[in-house]
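Backbone-to-sequence.
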């Protein structure tokens, strides 16, 4: 009976967080299929440790940490280094007329960042974590988070060249 209640609690948690976890995973890896795999791997780990997760002060943070760690671990495998797609440089400035175009450019630029920088940006600016919370999630110092954020934002600014609508570049 207790196991049934445990499974129902886990199912309710995953059902309510699945879309959010998938969105975070996509921002990390820039591939919906890989995002699904990362979420599935994370859900499996959460289920195995559900007793600990359910007692945690912040189960969402626990789930996010598991997801980010799964992503970073995948990046370190020999298989990933051999099969990863080559980062494509931006093909030129995107028109600002459509928010979708800007969003796609930003996603492409985010996907081109190194894994740790990408994870830092996603945690800081998408998940809205503080520097200290991000450092705790990534298992590094606050200074490291600040430098990774700075480098990542500089790279994103270089990659995404926005110009005011109606103006042409000279």
């Amino acid at each position: 009976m207790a196991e049934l209640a445990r499974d129902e609690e886990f199912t309710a948690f995953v059902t309510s967080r699945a879309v959010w976890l998938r969105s975070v995973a996509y921002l990390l890896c820039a591939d919906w299929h890989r995002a699904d795999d990362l979420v599935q791997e994370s859900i499996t780990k959460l289920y195995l440790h559900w007793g600990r997760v359910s007692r945690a002060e912040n189960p969402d943070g626990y789930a996010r940490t598991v997801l980010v760690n799964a992503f970073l671990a995948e990046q370190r495998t020999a298989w990933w280094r051999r099969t990863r797609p080559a980062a494509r440089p931006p093909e030129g400035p995107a028109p600002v007329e459509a928010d979708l175009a800007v969003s796609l450019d930003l996603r492409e630029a985010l996907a081109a960042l190194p894994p740790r920088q990408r994870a830092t940006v996603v945690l800081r600016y998408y998940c809205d974590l503080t520097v200290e919370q991000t450092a705790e999630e990534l298992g590094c110092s606050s200074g490291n988070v600040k430098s990774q954020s700075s480098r990542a934002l500089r790279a994103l600014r270089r990659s995404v060249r926005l110009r005011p609508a109606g103006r042409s570049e000279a």
